[in-house]
Design a protein that fits this description.
By secondary structure, the chain is an alpha/beta fold. Helices cover 30% and strands 22% of the residues. The chain has a five-stranded mixed sheet, with helices on both faces. A four-stranded mixed sheet has the order 8-13-12-11, with helices on both faces. The protein starts with a strand and ends with a strand. It binds coenzyme A (COA). The site of coenzyme A has 20 residues, from α2, α6 and α8.
Length: 349
């Protein structure tokens, strides 16, 4: 059975830089608070009208395709991970297929938030190993800036997130010293609501206590998104930050160790850990817990904030472009996020 290798990688971040000080114009916060709690100094925000989650994905994909030495016509499957799609439906995969004039290939959208890219890599890996596809484009892209609460009410969430995209081309390889060794996927929906965007959605929480006499005549037009929901900020992401932090620092090391143990390897064998850029404090905690040195971990949340599904491919691409990842290196990708879901992938570059 062949393994899957990353044959090309690309990233794209918007030009528009928003510093912590820029945010103080909209909400009560400070550069010192944000840096101390998250490590973030600045993030990028997409152009409001010109750039979407799909267009940023196309930019990253174009570079990945070129670096893989193929054309968009050679791609035989698309997997697109995002929580901020252009449309509620259809997903971004088909929009990218159209924009890049690809063949009538399959396009799958993945909604696993911060672990979306690692989940997507795992799915792509299975298709490559079974021989079903030869050139899979995996994209993680987010335009968070369109849907954050930039008032003081939403500051615990809005200061963290940024926009951007990353992409890889996965191909089969018969080289036993290269490619994905294993992937590991997990979830625990017990705390699904502590990092979530509730609306628009079909859950009953909002409607359960309304006791409407008639359905659906009452409040037609408000069934999906009511004024009350907007007044309550239910159309913005909600996060219980401290609870997320506590779970993340347990599950990150656990899923990394699971990947290493599956392959009979140790933390000292890791050449580069690419943790999802949730919060610099989380990455530092994980690094310390696993006893990794600074040159075994790549962080760039300082410049881009948390770009959710895009954060792992952006950090991976940047580390590779900076020459921190070389052929034969053992690379570990690890992510944790809303759901909760968490995942890892271990690969030989
Ligand atoms: N600027 C200034 N003050 C802020 C603020 C901001 N941007 N956001 C929140 N605060 C305030 C709160 O209102 C609160 O004030 P109070 O004590 O007067 O009530 C205080 O800071 C502490 O809030 P808390 O939420 O307990 O802060 P924290 O120390 O837990 O840090 C996070 C908040 C979000 C930085 C932290 O919980 C975190 O990083 N969690 C993980 C989040 C994460 O990784 N999410 C992505 C998952 S993939």
């Amino acid at each position: 059975m062949p393994r899957s290798k990353i044959a090309g990688i690309g990233m794209y971040v918007p030009k528009n830089i928003f510093t912590n000080n820029d945010l103080t114009k909209y909400m009560e916060t400070s550069d010192a608070w944000i840096q101390e709690r998250t490590g973030i100094k600045e993030r990028r925000y997409a152009d409001r009208t010109e750039e979407t989650t799909t267009t940023m994905g196309v930019e990253a994909a174009t570079i990945a395709i070129e670096r893989a030495g193929i054309t968009a016509q050679d791609v035989d499957f698309i997997i697109f991970a995002t929580l901020s799609p252009d449309y509620y439906f259809p997903g971004c995969g088909v929009l990218l297929q159209r924009a890049m004039k690809m063949k009538e290939i399959g396009a799958l959208d993945i909604r696993n938030q911060c672990s979306g890219f690692v989940y997507a890599i795992s799915v792509a890996d299975q298709f490559i190993k079974t021989g079903m596809y030869k050139n899979i484009l995996v994209v993680g892209s987010e335009k968070h800036s369109f849907g954050l609460d930039f008032s003081t009410r939403g500051r615990n969430v809005s200061v963290i997130f940024g926009d951007g995209a990353g992409a890889v081309i996965l191909q089969p390889t018969e080289n036993t010293n290269q490619g994905i060794l294993s992937t590991h996927l997990h979830s625990d929906g017990e705390a699904a609501e502590i990092l979530a965007m509730y609306n628009p959605g079909t859950h009953a929480n909002h409607w359960a206590n309304k006791n409407y006499a008639t359905f659906p005549e009452a409040e037609i037009g408000e069934m999906f998104m009511s004024h009350e929901m907007i007044d309550n900020a239910e159309n913005f992401p909600y996060m219980d930050g401290p609870s997320v932090f506590k779970k993340a620092i347990v599950k990150f090391p656990e899923v990394i160790m699971e990947a290493l143990q599956t392959n009979g390897l140790q933390t000292s064998d890791i050449n580069m850990l690419i943790p999802h850029q949730a919060n610099l404090r989380i990455s530092q905690f994980v690094q310390q817990k696993l006893g990794l040195s600074d040159n075994q971990v790549h962080n760039n949340i300082q410049k881009y904030g948390n770009t959710t599904a895009a954060s792992v491919p952006i950090a991976l691409c940047e580390a590779w472009e900076e020459g921190k990842i070389k052929e034969g290196d053992l690379v570990c990708l690890a992510a944790f996020g809303s759901g909760f879901t968490w995942a890892s992938a271990l690969l030989k570059w």
